[in-house]
Design goal:
It is built from 13 helices and 11 strands. With 313 residues, it is α/β, with parallel strands linked by helices. Strands 8-7-6-9-10-11 form a 6-stranded parallel sheet, sandwiched between helices. A 5-stranded parallel sheet has the order 3-2-1-4-5.
């Protein structure tokens, strides 16, 4: 029986960005089951993916010993296809079709570069599709919200402090968008953050009206977060895995960038907006009270114009 081996990243954002390739392979070869090897953080996203029969979560070990362990779990298989985004030992297992990541290109977005890895000439944007059961279960976090109630998703965290827009800016942005006459008037505000990111995210939670805020900080798995995001009206956040998750579930996404590589890792697609610090490459963290590398007024204006377009398309 033919089988495909798909080796994805430990990091949430990089793993999510490969889901477009996974979706393409599933549609190209619907009768070929897929085994995914990935880090434990994005594991439940791949476990929810249609056509994936097995997911092996790996934890990095010294001397790369996690790869022989994963190979042992895979067993003796002659693979139909191996797609390896890690350039790992697993990429050299016996196979008919081999696609091994050989390094990035700072001029290409990952949706393009990832597609090129398997010989596809058009972008393969990330894609996550929650099922009906997952959507139903997500109501435990959303509570009593009518189908007409809008939800603004905010992710004020990032894996590096210089990528974090100040929490006061997020509070003022949320107020501007959800106040009477705002683009998302009356919307609830769902605040996201991974376990361990409470210090970054809770100032936003605590600064919002209790009846308006939905506190999801440290409370969801990546797939649960994706499911909740799929029911939100829009997302605004720093350069993070949650930003790519928002793109993957198809909601309007605003990504705030300073340092990093927005040409490679910016939110992708027509329903996405990438706002950059000035000058480009400057950390978006507030250096002092007198200067903002990414001014609040700019973000409010650009986000409002963007939402005016995408929410009426």
């Amino acid at each position: 029986m033919k089988r495909t081996l798909f080796v994805a990243s430990n990091r949430l954002g990089d793993a999510v960005l490969t889901t477009g390739v996974l979706k393409y392979l599933r549609e190209l070869e619907p009768d070929v089951p897929i085994t995914v090897v990935c880090g434990t953080i994005p594991q439940d996203i791949f476990e929810s993916f249609e056509g994936v029969e097995r997911v092996i979560g790996v934890t990095k070990r010294r001397f790369s010993l996690h790869w022989p362990e994963a190979a042992a779990k895979l067993g003796l298989v002659y693979w139909h296809r191996i797609v390896d985004f890690r350039a790992s030992l697993l990429g050299f297992l016996p196979t008919r079709h081999r696609h091994i990541w050989k390094g990035g290109n700072n001029t290409l977005h990952k949706a393009v570069a990832n597609a090129q890895l398997i010989g596809v000439g058009h972008p393969l944007p990330p894609c996550i599709i929650p099922n009906a059961i997952q959507i139903d279960q997500s109501q435990q976090w959303l509570g009593e919200i009518s189908s007409a109630q809008k939800i603004l998703a905010i992710a004020p965290t990032a894996n590096f402090y210089q990528k974090q827009w100040h929490h006061e800016n997020y509070l003022k942005l949320a107020e501007a968008l959800t106040t009477k006459g705002g683009r998302l008037e009356g919307a609830k505000v769902a605040v996201f953050g991974a376990p361990g990111e409470e210090a970054q995210a809770l100032p936003v939670v605590n600064g919002l009206p209790e009846k308006q805020v939905i506190n999801l900080v440290g409370k969801t798995t990546p797939m649960q977060a994706a499911t909740i995001l799929s029911q939100c009206s829009a997302f605004i956040g720093n350069d993070s895995g949650l930003m790519h998750t928002a793109v993957a579930v198809g909601i309007p996404t605003v990504g705030l960038f300073g340092i990093g590589q927005p040409d490679v890792y910016g939110p992708f697609g027509d329903k996405s907006l990438c706002l950059r610090s000035s000058p480009p490459g400057t950390a978006i963290i507030r250096p002092d009270r007198t200067r903002e590398p990414l001014p609040l007024e700019t973000v409010i204006q650009e986000t409002d114009s963007f939402l005016a377009r995408v929410l009426t398309d």
